[in-house]
Amino acid sequence: MTRVDAPSARPAWLYAFFGLYVVAVYSFGPEWIQAPASALIMIAGLVAFHVGPRRNLDPADRTPWRLILVGSYAFVLASLIRVIWPATVADPPSALTLIPDGIVVPAYLCLGYALAVMLRRRRAADDDPARVDAILVGLAAAFLLWTLLIGPAVTSSLLSPVQVVDAIFPIIDAVLLVMVAQLILAGGARTPSLWLLIVASIAMFAADLLFCLRDVQLLNVPQQVVDALFLVMFVLLAASALHPSTRALVEPQRVTVRDLGPLRLTVIGLVVVVPTVISSLIPTGNLTNDLVRSGLCVLIVLGTLARVVRANNSRVRAERATRRRATHDALTDLPNRELLSETVTRWADRAIAEHLEISLLFIDLDRFKMINDHWGHQVGDELLCKVAGRLGEQVRAEDVVARIGGDEFVIALASPSHLRLAESLADRLLIELAHPFELSVGDVAISASIGLAKSTGGAHALELIRDADTAMNKAKGSGRNTYAMFDTSLREKVRDRVKLEQALRGAVERNELEVHFQPIIDLPTEELDGFEALMRWTSPELGFVSPMEFIPVAEETGMIEEMGTWLLRESVRQLQSWIESRGPDARPLHVSVNVAVRQLRNGSLVTVVDEILRETGLPPEALWLEITESGVMEDIESALLTLNALHALGVTLCIDDFGTGYSSLSYLHRLPVGIVKIDRSFINDIGQTGANEPIVRAVLAMTHAMGHRVVAEGVETETQRDWLRAQGCDLVQGWFYGKADRPANLKHWIERTVAA
Hints:
Layout: H1 10-28, H2 34-56, H3 63-84, H4 98-122, H5 130-155, H6 161-166, H7 169-185, H8 192-215, H9 223-242, H10 262-281, H11 287-327, H12 337-354, E1 357-365, H13 368-375, H14 377-393, E2 400-405, E3 408-415, H15 421-434, E4 437-439, E5 442-444, E6 448-455, H16 461-477, E7 483-485, H17 488-504, E8 513-522, E9 527-539, E10 543-545, H18 547-557, H19 559-582, E11 590-594, H20 597-601, H21 605-616, E12 623-628, H22 629-633, H23 636-649, E13 652-658, H24 665-670, E14 675-678, H25 693-705, E15 709-712, H26 718-726, E16 731-732, H27 747-750
Parallel strand pairs: 6-7, 9-11, 11-12, 12-13, 13-14, 14-15, 15-16
Antiparallel strand pairs: 1-3, 1-6, 2-3, 4-5, 8-9, 8-16, 9-10
Helix pairs in contact: 1-2, 1-9, 2-3, 2-9, 3-4, 4-7, 5-7, 5-10, 5-11, 7-8, 8-9, 10-11, 13-14, 17-18, 18-19, 19-21, 21-23
């Protein structure tokens, strides 16, 4: 559980400072103050063991400290018995000494179990070298204890059974040290609470060791020193419980296997060297002593070898993991582009000799962006994983399914060319991917476009992927949810498109663009009402390029935003110039400018239009902005915000190519438009009892009923004009009146001085 407001660490440090100060008073003060100082430390410690876990931990995380609290009460009880019953601490020790010792043993067991719970909660990795390092530390401690304490105690006929039992306590401490060593050597946060716990364990080990050395008369250590070390252990252990970082002792930690640092290397070196030196310097004893010492030395050497082997294995595993991360997709665990390229290259090396055909299926999910936009990227990732699983179910074991980015997958297979496995797989995948996917938000249906490219070994892997990608784009252009085969003509188209795109970049700065204007005529009066501004591009390298070719490229690459702003500014300036030249009594004119979908989505369009109108002084109603049905319907709510803001400026809005898209009365009623333009495809056969005449009549009646004016595009004959006039059409444009042309060639229209 994560806490927003972490408790302060000040109480823990104040308690530690106060406790160590009292220990110093106990150690260096008069004899009469020792008992009250000892009692004060124990009482304060028990309070800290009660308060600290409640303050810093959730109830479920307090188990280790509950165990330590029970052990602490046992330590305090044993101390009280020794004070109240002096015979239990008689020198030399008697059988009564076993009474407090029998109470202390459960305390050690509680502490050991608490450390085990902490280790389990922190969840060290199975291959964490800290485990071997901790065992080495324990073996070294066991060797020292046996050589300096237990061995002499066991082999000496002068020691009492009680003294032999007392020699067991350092062995328990050694086990606890192994557990504490693993806590610090393992990865994870090395917090103040952990360090306090470690130093407390070392103080306890030192106290037990000095007590036993004194007990077997190997070292003359005052009892006061031993007791002071036990009190230090009590103070630091309680301070660890009080410190807020104690929760890191019971929370999962991220284990990081690091290279051997200087300190860790020194410890391992001492573990090996010290027993060897001691074995050489201390005289040998009886056979049992020698066997135990030799056995411990062998275990230390074997442990060191195990450490080296485990470290090498960890490095190998880490290298494999690094390699897998570099060659596999993190989300789906499929091979990525790099591994796919390596595999295809390997197949290509033997394709000719084995008469193999390498096939690549480039799979792109249709309208995947809508999934992310509607449900969020988490659901999108969920869908990608489901798709990866479904693709894997449809291929052979020797085939490769890769994710090379976004919603793009590639399946690579090698087979004899006559089997047509790739085509069969493509058909099967289209069917399988069309089945709804069960996601956390419910069943989601998608489709896919697939490009298929083949090679008999001559093509480079990246070229084959590129060709399959090109074929996939052809499939998308064919209406999606299908597959397309690559052929060399597609490569030529891609090359031409790239060439066109590169030439188009910078066309605005190089003044390569022009604005041509096509007259729009008021049909009842046959007078000029305005112009539609159309962008034209003549490239020094490519010559004249049709708008049907460069406009889609500009929209796909985003260049249309800069080019559209340029068109808007140039069109408004030209119209304002014409208006000024005609005089104030002339009929008002307008200019109609197309707005691309990208411009409509860009929040800056309203600002740009406002700035241009202010710069030129053109009346807002003289500017018509044409928007397509499909552009609005892609995101109607966002489009409405922009269109309403433009309408508020006074600009006239037009629906372009009406009838070719949604043609919905419900959305047309919501849009703040004033003009509807009927697409030229409906005008071709009117006046000749054509099939589109009822549609045009319906559009005219509908839009007039809603208060909109209608412009008919593509009027090329007198018959078409007369029929539209008879049906009440408001405005027309087309080659019957004139094609789009440069401003200099339109003077005959501008110089008509018809009064308003």
